[in-house]
Amino acid sequence: MRILRLFFVLAFLFLFRTGFSQQKSYRIHTLAFYNFENLFDTINDPSTNDDEWTPKGEQRWTSKKYHQKLENLARVVLEIGKPENANSPTFIAGSEIENRGVLEDLVQQPKMAMQDYGIIHFDSPDKRGIDVALLFQKKYFKPTSYANIPLYIYKKEFQNEELVSASGEDDDELVQNRYDNRVFTRDQLLITGFLEGEEIHIIVNHWPSRAGGEKKSSPFREAAGILNRKIIDSLQRINPDAKVITLGDLNDGPFNNSIKKALGAKAKKQEVPEFGIYNPFEEMAKKGLGTIAFRDSWDIFDQILLTQSLIKSDFSTYQYWKAGIFNKSYLIQNSGQYKGYPKRHSATEVGFSDHFPVYIYLIKEAK
């Protein structure tokens, strides 16, 4: 009996040790997007409409408020992706950025400075001067090329100002020119580089706003989606296995034409065809989750989409694991008219943003 009992004990220990040794470990990187909402310095730029965000402007934007804003944003971006990933995001894509200077101030915040973030930024033709950019940890990612790709869209009728009316999101400039009528908006920023030796492509977006109404402005965002798809197609023609991540504030939800038709994004991995695009945020939208609220209605304007090459089950190279919305309690307004909304800047308090950040994890089996 003792021999039999000893046999079972030894067998259990063998199975336990074998099972434990078969547990796989993975390398993990967080990729995040955050609309920084009016990340302006206090200096008046005569070439843009930034007067509101100066000490004498409507917001009374002082140096003290500006530095509080930087401190707030640094706190958020360093916490995105935790606890699954103890490291701060390897990539932080952002929008509503006035210039490179504000990004340099942000990455020099005490805790962020330790992460040694690099900056990729171009000035865009947006009339307020707000741009998109990418921050990346230099020890993990080595950029090889980057370019700002302009979105050329035009208003057919001269001086029809419905699409640039004062709706609270008047970010896009209708140039009143009989021969042009171009709507100036943010460029799409394409970055190519190597994440620990693996080539990836990242496209950072801030698509045209809904100024003048969702329906009337929808063609502008559909044009942005078409341009985005063309960029992805060009990368896939060069390399059919190109790993492309497109992300940003799209000013449309996962069900809008700019994403469902122009990009052809799918909600389920099994539905994504070869060279297709997966949108993990569509299922979240179906559950009523959101990154931005308007008139007590939530939507997910901030999204991260991936090509089919990033959703495979073989984790010998970096692949998508899962996605999330970073909506911690301190980012939420807890009183007043906008209780429950993202905690943005107000007359009495420097907040965070009117958007919640979003993120994904990329993982690879460790050797």
Short description:
By secondary structure, the protein is an alpha+beta fold. Helices cover 23% and strands 28% of the residues.
Polypeptide structure, described:
By secondary structure, the chain is an alpha+beta fold. It is 23% helix and 28% strand. The protein contains seven helices and 18 strands. The strands form four sheets. It has a seven-stranded mixed sheet. A six-stranded mixed sheet has the order 3-4-2-1-18-17, covered by helices on one side. Strands 6-8-7 form a three-stranded antiparallel sheet, with no helix packed on it. Helix 2 (63-79) links the parallel strand 1 (26-39) and strand 2 (91-97). Helix 2 (63-79) packs across helix 3.
Radius of gyration using CA atoms only: 23 Å
> Judging from the principal axes of the Cα atoms, what is the shape?
globular
| Largest β-sheet summary | 7 strands, mixed
Record the strand order, biggest sheet.
5-9-10-11-16-13-12
> Into which percent range does the helicity of residues fall?
10-25%
Features:
367 residues, alpha+beta, six-stranded mixed sheet, 23% helix, globular
How are the SSEs placed, and which strands pair?
Blueprint: H1 2-21, E1 26-39, H2 63-79, E2 91-97, H3 100-107, H4 110-113, E3 117-121, E4 131-137, E5 141-149, E6 153-154, E7 173-174, E8 182-184, E9 188-195, E10 198-206, H5 214-238, E11 244-249, H6 257-262, E12 265-266, E13 277-278, H7 281-286, E14 292-294, E15 297-299, E16 302-307, E17 319-325, E18 358-365
Parallel strand pairs: 1-2, 10-11, 12-13
Antiparallel strand pairs: 1-18, 2-4, 3-4, 5-9, 6-8, 7-8, 9-10, 11-16, 13-16, 14-15, 17-18
